[in-house]
Specification:
Blueprint (H helix, E strand, L loop, with lengths): L1 E8 L4 H8 L1 H9 L6 H7 L2 E7 L2 E8 L20 E5 L8 E8 L2 E3 L12 E3 L3 H14 L2 E16 L8 E14 L2 H10 L12 E5 L1
Antiparallel strand pairs: 1-3, 1-4, 2-3, 5-9, 5-10, 6-7, 8-9
Helix pairs in contact: 1-2
Length: about 210
């Protein structure tokens, strides 16, 4: 069982503004809705995506544990409305077609040392053909094939994370289209753990809907 939460945030809140600029800080805020402890946090790890909404910012959160949004330490005026939570138990079958959305950080590992980068460092992909090729490779190992897809450049996301003293830069792209299920078990796994790198800054959440 998965849980989907819809959080409508107030664009006038200074905390919301700061977290939209630095999604890793938003990730830290969202994590407070889940149980503490290593095992519990691993089971409750959430995926999220920030989207613009008519009245402000909307955050979609997917988790394996039921969230307790009242546990968040947020200031007055953070919420536009009360969080909405629903259960999500996808029924997937081979050949099924579904609309999808994925905001991702397409990368590849550098195979040789160059320009001061170490062997194995991740580098962003910026050409549309490279990004679509990345998604096709991810689809092949995550239980689906692509019927139609468009790639929208979202720009770079720069924010501080726990992995370094300076801000990290992530190339961002949003994929929208229609997929065909080829392996329901593998696709279910990709729904639970996400696709690609940068999950702590708002990438990787694969959203599905009926076509």
């Amino acid at each position: 069982m998965l849980y989907l939460s819809r959080l409508d945030l107030n664009p006038r809140s200074r905390q919301v503004q700061a977290e939209v600029r630095s999604p890793y800080q938003m990730h830290r805020t969202l994590s407070k809705a889940f149980p503490e402890g290593d095992d519990a946090q691993q089971a409750a790890r959430c995926l999220f995506r920030v989207e613009e909404a008519p009245q402000g910012w909307r955050v979609l959160v997917q988790s394996r544990a039921h969230p307790a949004w009242d546990r968040l330490t947020v200031g007055e005026g953070y919420w536009l409305s009360a969080p909405c939570v629903k259960e999500f138990a996808p029924r997937l079958a081979v050949g099924q077609t579904l609309a999808f959305r994925l905001r991702a950080n397409p990368t590849m590992r550098r195979s040789e040392k160059r320009e001061g980068r170490r062997l194995g460092d991740r580098i962003g992909l910026y050409a549309e053909a490279e990004r679509l090729g990345w998604l096709e490779r991810k689809a092949a190992v995550n239980g689906f094939s692509l019927c139609t897809v468009t790639a929208t450049d979202v720009g770079q996301v720069k924010c501080h994370t726990q992995h370094g003293p300076g801000p990290a830069a992530f190339s961002a792209v949003q994929f929208d289209g229609v997929l065909c299920v080829t392996d329901p078990i593998a696709l279910r796994g990709s729904l639970e753990i996400g696709i690609g790198a940068g999950k702590s800054v708002g990438f990787g959440l694969l959203s599905l809907a009926r076509t």
